[in-house]
Design goal:
single chain, about 270 residues, alpha/beta, Rossmann fold, 2 domains, seven-stranded mixed beta sheet, 9 strands, about 50% helix, globular, binds S-adenosylmethionine
Length: about 270
């Protein structure tokens, strides 16, 4: 099992708090004008997006690699998702008119061959006249700036994902400890650290603030339920790629896959093939 696969399994009981993020309900609703039946979501998680599109009258299937995500989709939403790896799906050629690769699939991968095999598989199961959408996670520009400032995202496009988890938990459990850690990561004085944080946190959009509140609830619940809540952080992949628009364009050039359109949102970039 890869680093990321273990992560999805371990986090599935708490996914409720995090699922409406990156390629979220707001963005999928903006995409609906481009979506045609039948639809496939690859990396469907616990079915948030599948359910939303079904509510809008689309005929939608969802696949996910992680069995516990499938179980929660059934328990929480009554959905029958299909357990499969996006690299090898149990569908005939051209079965769908729209395929959507959710965030948390190719965007979490560094290996180009692996990315190519998932994208080619999505293209295989999509009609020639259809569309394949590939989503890449993004942080809100203010959060991204802060993460770059304290080295959680490097200039080489590496995201220190586990460290981000540690810092996020610390910011919820122990704000003073967080400021101290922030200060030492950024190598600045206490006042500079505090000002940078206040500037970002105060002016975050509502959606981001709401997500922060959900994270705080998540950590409160896991602190109550688990003997070792840190184990949730330990299972996070140490690094995942962080790709900006330019890096995404370069990735598709490298794969020799032409991009038809690219939409940039605050919480993800959606590439249309
Ligand atoms: C961020 S979640 C997506 C959640 C989803 N957008 C929703 O509606 O809630 C990413 C999901 O992709 C799944 N995943 C990751 N790699 C995959 C692969 N190669 N094939 C299928 N699913 C995969 C993970 O198990 C995880 O549930």
């Amino acid at each position: 099992m890869s680093d990321t696969e273990h992560y999805w399994k371990r986090w599935s009981p708490y996914w409720f708090f995090l699922e409406d993020f990156f390629l979220d309900l707001e963005i999928i609703n903006k995409l609906t004008i481009h979506i045609e039946n039948p639809v496939l979501i690859i990396g469907a998680g616990q079915g948030l997006l599948v359910e939303e599109l079904q509510k809008k009258g689309f005929q939608v299937d969802g696949v996910d690699l992680e069995p516990s995500m499938i179980t929660y989709a059934k328990k929480r939403r009554g959905l029958n998702l299909i357990q499969a790896n996006g690299k090898n799906m149990p569908f005939s050629d051209r079965s769908y008119k729209t395929s959507i690769i959710a965030t948390g699939v190719v965007d979490f991968m560094g290996d180009e061959e692996e990315i190519e095999s998932i994208i080619n598989e999505a293209r295989r199961v999509t009609d020639d006249s259809g569309k394949v959408f590939v989503a890449f996670y993004q942080y809100h520009p203010k959060v991204e700036k802060l993460f770059r400032y304290i080295g959680l995202i490097t200039d080489k496009g590496v995201h220190l994902f586990r460290r981000m988890g540690e810092m996020t938990k610390l910011s919820c459990d122990n704000p003073i400890g967080y400021i101290k850690a922030f200060k030492s990561e950024a190598n600045v004085g206490y006042c500079s650290a505090l000002i940078s944080l206040i500037k970002v946190l105060l002016f975050l959009p509502k959606k981001e603030k709401k997500q922060r509140k959900k994270s705080a609830k998540l950590w409160k619940q896991t602190d109550n339920e688990l003997d070792n809540p840190e184990s949730l952080i330990d299972c996070l992949p140490e690094f995942i790629p962080y790709r900006n628009e330019e890096n995404i364009i370069d990735l598709f050039k490298l794969l020799s896959i032409p991009i038809r359109n690219m939409s940039v949102y605050d919480s993800c970039v959606v590439v249309q093939l």
